[in-house]
Amino acid sequence: MSNPYQVTLFRAEQSQKLRNVRMHSPSIIQIISGSKRLFWKDSAIDVSHSKLLLSDASASLSFENLPQKGRFLSRVFSFHCLPPESMLELSRNNGQGEETLLLSATSGLQDILNALFSFDQYNMSNETRTFWVMGLYQQLAELGALHQLFSDVNTLFSQKLSRYLSLSPSEEHALETVAIHFAMSRATLIRKLKQEGTQYREVLAEVRLNHALSLIQSGTRNIALLAQSCGYQSEGRFSQRFKGKFGLTPKDYIKTVATSF
């Protein structure tokens, strides 16, 4: 069984504005300190620790992380296991058709997210961790929010592909090898992506640029090393693509990140 979820920390000690950050898996963003200003459908929404931000696997988020008393910290929980249809049906019935982007961070939700975060530090089987994730899914279903998190997961092949690549973004991921994983020929994989208006190298590049954000957050400051880790031979080309994607250079992003917490 693959890892049922991952947790990524995002820190900032200066205002940190990013655009087009792709969510490759259904995700919950939990604000620990500071606030996040989300730019969504021509409006700005402020998200603090009292709210949880829900994102399905198709979302591309633009936002500004705003430190409070010199620091910003959030946790992004990315989920890789699906809820049973019975939970999704319960969620749809309880949600009454409402679109849920923000959810009140109840004590119950906070407790289980904190537990899931702590489990990352210990040797616990994936089966046990999946059991806890299902407990979170049940809470979300009772609140009518679970089906928003999994609104259109797995509807596009490019989404399945990006989720698979994001599990190990620094690996080579030769097209032929990836095609074998999906039990199809190289030509079929290329054709499926073309039908969705994209190409393999574009999907891989997007996944690796997101990976660069995580590497910087984990302490990597050498831009040449970042470029190499993300499959770029040229540091300049990497910086150009990073800025084109997120709206600031890797060097400028590094300046916003807290070095310790």
Protein model, in words:
- With 261 residues, the chain is an alpha+beta fold.
- It is 44% helix and 21% strand.
- It contains eleven helices and nine strands.
- A five-stranded antiparallel β-sheet has the order 1-8-3-6-9, with helices on one face. Strands 2-7-4-5 form a four-stranded antiparallel β-sheet.
- The two termini are 33 Å apart.
Strand content: 15-25%
Structural class based on helices, strands and sheet pairing = alpha+beta
Give the overall shape, derived from the CA principal axes.
globular
Radius of gyration: 18 Å
Outline of the structure:
This protein is α+β, with helices and mostly antiparallel strands and 261 residues long. It has eleven helices and nine strands.
Helices and strands in order, then pairings?
Elements: E1 5-12, E2 16-22, E3 27-33, E4 35-40, E5 43-47, E6 51-55, E7 60-66, E8 72-79, H1 85-95, E9 102-104, H2 107-119, H3 126-142, H4 146-149, H5 157-166, H6 175-181, H7 186-195, H8 200-217, H9 223-229, H10 235-246, H11 250-256
Antiparallel strand pairs: 1-8, 2-7, 3-6, 3-8, 4-5, 4-7, 6-9
Helix pairs in contact: 1-3, 2-3, 5-8, 9-10
